[in-house]
Specification:
Shape: elongated
Radius of gyration: 30 Å
Helix content: 25-40%
Strand content: under 5%
Number of helices: 3
Structural class: mainly alpha
Distance between the termini: 69 Å
């Protein structure tokens, strides 16, 4: 597939990228080569290949989804500028 400079300028305009005529002349064959590679990849027979997301098997290590209170209230409140009754104390902002 060949890409001409007008197509490159149009694509650049759609992408809101300013390019000069010299850049469009340089990019046209590069885009043509890229599209040629894509067409070549489309010709590969992958009918016997199972879909995969990685080339090596991956298993996720997940911790148990258990709800806890954390048990670190005092440690968290130790960093608070002011705490009252086990909560952060903040100044009143609405009258």
């Amino acid at each position: 597939m060949s890409v001409d400079t007008n197509t490159v300028k149009r694509i650049a305009g759609l992408a809101r990228i300013a390019i000069t005529d010299a850049e469009a002349d340089r990019l046209a064959p590069e885009l043509g080569n890229i599209l040629g590679w894509i067409e070549q990849l489309g010709e590969v027979d992958t009918s016997g290949v199972a879909p995969m997301t990685a080339v090596i098997p991956n298993t996720l290590r997940l911790r148990d989804d258990v709800v806890t209170d954390g048990g670190v209230r005092e440690a968290v409140l130790a960093n608070a500028p002011q705490a009252e009754h086990g909560f952060f104390a903040v100044p009143k902002v609405i009258e």
